[in-house]
Amino acid sequence: MSHHELDARHLLCPMPVIRAQQQVARLRPGDTLVVRATDPGALHDIPAWCRLHGHEVLATTTESGEVRVTLRVGNQ
Amino acid sequence: MSTVSTPRKAVALISGGLDSLLAARVVLDQGVHVEGINFYTGFCVEGHTHAIRREHQHKPKRNNALWAAGQLGIKLHIIEVIEEYKDIVINPRHGYGANLNPCLDCKIFMLRKAREWMEANGFDFIITGEVLGQRPMSQRRDTLPVVARDSGACDRLLRPLCARLLPPTLPEREGWVNRERLHDFNGRSRKPQIALAEQYGFHDYAQPAGGCCFLTHEQYSHKLADFWRARGEKRYELDDIMLLKVGRHLRPRPHFKLIVGRDEGENNFLSGYRGRFVHLAATSHAGPLVLLDGRADDDDLDLAARLTARFGQGRTAERVAVVVTDTQGSEHTLEVAPLPADEIPETWYL
Ligand code: SF4
């Protein structure tokens, strides 16, 4: 199990979700990933994408214009 | 001995609109394993302007393709094709539609990418939401076969909404899907789709006016054509086409144009480009951030400053102080009279 961080700040949707998808494809089940983004759409898109692909969303936060979505990679 | 056959697998092009949603659902209903694929070209109508503009921020933002996949309960693979797509927009072999939309080449390109994905992932066929006769360029009886052939998808391409009007494809001939349970939608009427959506209980689906991307928008295409003309060549980077979606664009002189933020959200977005453009903003009054794209001498800067003042709260003031900053960050201030509205010819607006 390892923990990773993805900087998707200053990218407009749907780029944060595309980057998250690319990163998750390189991870193993059980790994965790924090995605940092500034487009508020990421707060919706990344959890929506996770639900479709069976990844667990552990936390979502928004602070001073920055969105953070923490997910745990499911079986792919 | 009984054999349990594994379901056939189809990849569905999901645009986020109703037709592709329905097409995927029709095939899912026949026990086929379906996953969605969606291509991001940079011109997609998704999100950006909503993310940028303040006035849109009360609306819930959603990615329509993700929403559609959620309705279907299928996986969605979003594929970024920004670089490869440039050649489609710049040199479409089959030309443009009513605006700078290269729909036929675009369809062929996306289906080719979907075919490659299908082959790489062990899928059997491709589904699209195309309807015969619905769109003037890419969905005509004579162009549907061109799309199937030139993309290499050939008869592994199933169009469930109009399949019964077309020759049977491999999935139908092999019995992977039952042709009798496919549809025969034809023409521009949306009624059959709306009735089918009702039957499946799909509400609140996206209905983009005109098409799935900005290239079908007249004003956007006009700005893109102007951009190419001013550059002297047909080329673009992602930032260029993003900037065409934001702000008011005016070209007062052939050698420069102004991009004027229309609200706080746009001003914030444009401020991310200050290092790349000469930019102007009033200091004596509230007002927009203005980027200057092109070359400008002192007279041009004076005109740009008067326009900057014109679009701010000092528009009726006698003098407005406008600070001009170059790409190195050095500033100077101009005291100008705002340009009266009747001195801005319509032709300046792009
Ligand atoms: S509207 Fe845009 S995305 Fe849709 S087919 Fe035409 S060019 Fe492609």
Automatic annotation (TrEMBL), chain A:
CDD domains referenced in this protein's UniProt entry, alphabetically: SirA_YedF_YeeD
Location of the UPF0033 domain: 4-72
Cross-referenced Gene3D superfamilies: TusA-like domain
UniProt signal peptide: none
Family per similarity comment: Belongs to the sulfur carrier protein TusA family.
Xref: PANTHER family: SULFUR CARRIER PROTEIN YEDF-RELATED (PTHR33279:SF6)
Name this polypeptide is given: SirA family protein
Organism: Candidatus Muproteobacteria bacterium RIFCSPHIGHO2_01_FULL_65_16
